Amino acid sequence: MKKQKLELTWIGKEERPRLEPRILLEDQELSYHAGHRVTEADLFDNRLIFGDNLLALKALEQEFTGKVKWYPSK
Questions:
Q1: Rounded to an integer, what distance in angstroms lies between the CA atom of residue 60 and that of residue 52?
Q2: Closest by CA position to 60, among listed 21, 17, 19
Q3: How far is it, in rounded angstroms, from Cα 54 to Cα 61?
Q4: Contact present, 21 and 58 (Cβ < 8 Å)
Q5: What is the pLDDT of residues 37-74, one digit of tens each?
Q6: pTM of the model
Q7: Organism's domain of life (predicted)?
Q8: Nearest to 51 by CA among 72, 28, 23
Q9: Which ranges in 1-74 belong to alpha helices (H)?
């Protein structure tokens, strides 16, 4: 049996928008920072981003390029 591949297709898919670099700004009223670390392995770098997905990913691209592990589904 031959496996079928699915693809999202839309008009203008090949015409990618040119995006300007973006800067993420922290909103102190919405931020929460724990008072102290319980262990040295604790991380305080979680982010909750409000806004357009593509623009948010573009803003994170430079900082995280090559640092995110991705495992394709089987």
A1: 12
A2: 21
A3: 10
A4: yes
A5: 788 777 766 788 888 888 888 888 888 888 877 787 76
A6: 0.50
A7: Bacteria
A8: 23
A9: 53-64
